[in-house]
Specification:
There is one protein chain. Helix 1 (2-53) runs antiparallel to helix 2 (60-73) and helix 5 (181-187) packs antiparallel against helix 6. This protein has 4 domains: 1-64; 75-163, Nuclear Transport Factor 2, Chain: A (Roll); 167-273 and 424-434, Roll (Nuclear Transport Factor 2, Chain: A), CATH 3.10.450.350; 285-401, Distorted Sandwich (Glucose Permease (Domain IIA)). With 435 residues, it is of the alpha+beta class. It starts with a helix and ends with a helix. Strands 11, 14, 16, 17, 18, 20, 22 and 23 form an 8-stranded antiparallel sheet that branches. The protein has helices at 2-53, 60-73, 89-95, 100-111, 181-187, 192-202, 412-434; strands at residues 77-82, 124-129, 135-143, 146-152, 157-163, 166-177, 216-227, 233-245, 248-256, 262-265, 285-288, 291-294, 301-304, 307-310, 316-318, 323-330, 336-341, 346-353, 355-356, 365-366, 371-374, 385-392, 395-397.
Amino acid sequence: MLSINLKIISSLIFLFLGVYFFYNEYNLLLKIKFNNIDLIKKQEIISKDNIIKNTKNNNKNEIKNKIKNIETKNNLTKFKIKVNKGDTFASILQKLNLEDQTIFSIANKVENFYDLKKLKIGQNILFFKNSFNEIKKIELKKNIDSKIIVLINNNEIIAKKEKLKKSFFQESKEFNIRESLYQDGIKNNVPQEILISLIKLYSFDLDFQRDIRANTYVAIFYDMYQIVETGDIEYNDINYARISIGGKNIEYFKFKTDEGFIDYFNKEGKNVKKSILKTPIDGARLSSNYGMRKHPISGYNKMHKGIDFAAPKGTPIYAGGNGTIEYVGKNGGYGNYIRIRHNNDYKTAYAHMSSFKKGISKGVRVNQGDVIGYVGSTGNSTGPHLHYEIIFQNKQINPNKLQLPSGKILKGKELERFKKEFKEIYADHLNLLYE
């Protein structure tokens, strides 16, 4: 009986010792494992912290290369999130389980370079995570040729703007108008941005509803960039443009004046710009001219003291000339209305607008071509359109009969320099067109 009890006691002692040693060894293994993980994290943080501390002593390329090396070593995985309706930058970060304080810090850093209220539905934001599913880097497109990069350490968040590399190209096009300048330009692969610039350029001399006719010839030579990383195209200035109507050539060349302004001149050195635009809107249809007409709402014959341009609601409206906002707000049957004073004699007025551009108020100075508001149908209106008036000595006049003085005329050495440069521009245009 005694021997049996001793055996039981011995077995219990061995069992207890076995459990004790197993427990100790298991905890030791766990400690080693987590110490290794902590060591890896500390090495990652220390590596990037060292780069940050040495920023002042290294040029941008060296910093960029070192950061790239760290990202490679840490095997960052890239993924993207598309901005959906109702999303904000903060709400997207919350879905990634980032702490509120971290989200606040990231947003604050990004706001130094980019207005986060301008995030667009469908825009992609790139995220980079490490092997522990921790977000270490964010990339946000600012505009076509720059992006915002955010680097995230446990103790510090860095945001910076980075310019993207781009390649320079030039392109020349020519076509005949069958329907309209805009439609035929699109059919002939002229970019929309360039066509809008072309319409603005010629809006001083041409009424696109009355002057353009079938078989009008158009030639254009412009600059463009391609972003190397994304392949996106950025269209720049028009260098040369020509519109030929009934044997009459209207052509303009880009030129930098002695004062340092980029502007457009004909071969004689006369500036394209007039003091007031005849057409302060893009791609609109002339729906009602100046003169007597049957009013579409009252039904009575009445003098129409302006011209109407039919266009979709929200189409931008441009200031017809340099000047000061004299009136902005509701104005009876005109609805939402703006009047600009250009000098002692001339004013322009814009009616039935859906809204005014932010920042437009009485006393604000605007430059010719600045967006001042958007097409609407407020006041006495049967549909979205712009009612445009040119006022001379406080009386509305017919814009189509207005003879406006030209701007700057080149003279002397400046004219000689222009003549030399426009010949080079024209030669480059022909080379591209017929190469």
